[in-house]
Amino acid sequence: MTRAVVFSGGGRAGAAWMLGLAAGLREAGVDLAGADLIVGTSGGARTGAQLATGAVDQAITAYRAHRPPAARTYAGLPDFVAAVRPIQAAASSQLDAARQIANLGPLGPGLASAAGRRQEIAASLPVHTWPGTPLKISAVDAASGHRVVFDARSGVSLRDAVNASGALPGIYPLAELNGRRYADGGAYSLYSADLAAGHEVVIVITPFPLAPHLRARLDTELAALGDCASHLILADETSLTAIGPDPSAAAAQVPALEAGMAQAAREVNTLRAAWNAHVAQR
Questions:
Q1: 163 with 191: CB under 8 angstroms?
Q2: How far is 199 from 104, CA to CA, in rounded Å?
Q3: What is the pLDDT of residues 206-239, one digit of tens each?
Q4: Which H or E element spans position 13?
Q5: What residues contact residue 137 under an 8 Å CB cut-off, 6+ apart?
Q6: C-alpha dihedral (80, 81, 84, 86), degrees to nearest 10
Q7: pLDDT value of position 272
Q8: What is the Cα–Cα distance from 110 to 195, expressed in whole angstroms?
Q9: What is the DSSP letter of 245?
Q10: What is the pLDDT of residue 67?
Q11: How confident is the model at residue 36 (pLDDT cuts 50, 70, 90)?
């Protein structure tokens, strides 16, 4: 039996919460690093890379020491959500919406520094090389709106892939790689759970509540997986309070990390049997 873990977009605090959750689950006997595939989008790309490279403990230490240094931003995730809602409502297709979102203008007086953003990503990844565990990282081609999936065979460094996946339009500069411009993978889908097709067990982890349009998107992607056992973990009320109203806020990273670790104890009983039962069948 094969297993996949999907980490959704989530901003800085959401990424820290997902990391804390993974660490807490590991301590309780459910090691998500044993997955056959890890999928990450935006903040989830950062968490997925930390998990896949075996750098969970190093990343936690860095968070608690208030590293990595956060690039200065001039708008937050609520500003981004407010800007994309009318685009999603009026767009002719998911592809059209992704293209328009990828090309948003600055949502504040300016974009974050490209150099500062790269520094933040580099500092958040204690291991800079692609892992042996299959890892898929989603981004969006800004010119076409198509989803692009980076992996170890893409000819793109792990840091560049994570940077591209989290290049939130209107807040961060788009990532330029090999003559193409890439935006946050969440412009196409917050989850990209369909990338886990072919695996019998799929765990989807997201810090965001399921608004109706998110529920519909995730349901469509899970349906594309066919006959598999899927399990969804959402941030609970306590975790949402720790993450705060702006999941992109750097100040919320440590509280969100600790909340994720605490929530793991509340999730593990429903997850342990399914996850470890498949280990026994290998």
A1: no
A2: 35
A3: 999 999 999 999 999 999 999 899 999 999 999 9
A4: helix 11-27
A5: 39, 40, 41, 45, 48, 49, 149, 150, 151, 161, 162, 164, 165, 185
A6: -130
A7: 87
A8: 34
A9: S
A10: 77
A11: very high
In the numeric block, the tokens 């840091």 are attached to 159
Tokens of 251: 């100040």
Q: Which tens digits make up the pLDDT trace of 6-29?
A: 999 999 999 999 999 999 999 999
The answer to whether 32 and 272 have CB atoms below 8 angstroms apart is no
Are residues 221 and 194 in contact, defined by beta-carbon separation less than 8 angstroms?
A: yes
CA-to-CA dists, residue 239 to 29, 201, 208, 255, 264, angstroms: 21, 25, 10, 9, 11
30 residue type, one letter: V
pTM score over 0.70: yes
CA angle 219, 6, 225 (to 5 degrees): 45
Per-residue model confidence as pLDDT tens digits over 253-276: 999 999 999 999 999 998 987 787
The Cα-based distances of 277 to 36, 49, 137, 201 in angstroms read 15, 25, 27, 11
Closest by alpha carbon to 243, among 228, 222, 231, 260? 260
Distance, in Å, from the CA atom of 48 to the CA atom of 149, rounded to the nearest integer, reads 14
Q: String of b and e for 120-151 (b: at least 16 CB within 10 Å)?
A: bbbebbbeeebbebebbbbbbbbeebebbebe
Specify whether the CB–CB gap between 111 and 172 falls below 8 A: yes
Non-local (6+) Cβ contacts of 226 within 8 A are 197
Token digits of residue 181: 């411009």
The alpha carbon of residue 121 and the mean position of all alpha carbons in its chain are separated, in whole angstroms, by 13
Helix (H, G, I), strand (E, B) or coil at 57: helix
Distance from C-alpha of 218 to C-alpha of 238, rounded to nearest angstrom: 23
Give the C-alpha separation, 70 to 17, whole Å: 16
Q: Which two tokens stand for residue 210?
A: 């399921």
